Amino acid sequence: MGGGVHRVGSSSSTKINALLPKALESTVVLDVHSIACGGKHVVLVTKKGEVFSWGEECGSRLGHGAEVDVSHPKLIDAFCGMNIELVACGEYHSCVITHSRDLYTWEDGTHNSGLLRHGSEASHWILKKVSGPMEGMHVSYVACGPWHIVVVTSAGQLFTFGDGTFGALGLEDFEVMKLIGPSPAS
């Protein structure tokens, strides 16, 4: 989390470092099933399928729909009733897989330049189901790099999308610098 949590809207920022592991204090019992760290945010999924996030809010990467930093786990209301299984985070984007094996994403379009096809130059805290070439496929696993996403389907197919700089997408055509939407990796 970049060494701490910073609050927006106050003249002084709070930075709390912990040199040794420390139990997270929360007003809610978090029976954690899956957890992921982005550049300056954390998203977790409970065994009940609830999704919580906290950290620096920049372009809606926390998923709460407000440009306010969050210093403790906060429930993301948009996921209520969806039964989420797995989470992955990139620098300015996050992904979840539902119990029914659908992939949803949300991103900061201002930093990602439309990485996840939510449109460009706008923040997109509203989750969006990934479609296109993956329509109807069941997602088994997702992992995020800083600017790209890798997805494995239940059939074992590997899809990649996002920024392909330095061959990060695993595609044969290295002239493709950015692929918008999932594409089967070579």
Helix/strand layout:
Layout: E1 32-37, E2 41-46, E3 51-55, E4 70-75, E5 84-89, E6 93-98, E7 103-108, H1 109-112, E8 123-129, E9 139-144, E10 148-153, E11 158-163, E12 178-184
Antiparallel strand pairs: 1-2, 2-3, 3-4, 5-6, 6-7, 7-8, 9-10, 10-11, 11-12
Keywords:
Ub_ligase/GEF_domain; 1 helix; about 190 residues; mainly beta; RCC1/BLIP-II; disordered N terminus; globular; 4-stranded antiparallel sheet; 12 strands; Methylamine Dehydrogenase, Chain H
Would you mind describing this structure in some detail?
The strands form three sheets. A four-stranded antiparallel beta sheet has the order 1-2-3-4, with no helix packed on it. The protein has a four-stranded antiparallel beta sheet with strand order 5-6-7-8. A four-stranded antiparallel beta sheet has the order 9-10-11-12, with no helix packed on it. The N terminus is likely disordered. It has a single domain, classed as Methylamine Dehydrogenase, Chain H (7 Propeller). The chain is globular, with a radius of gyration of 16 Å. With 186 residues, it is mainly β.
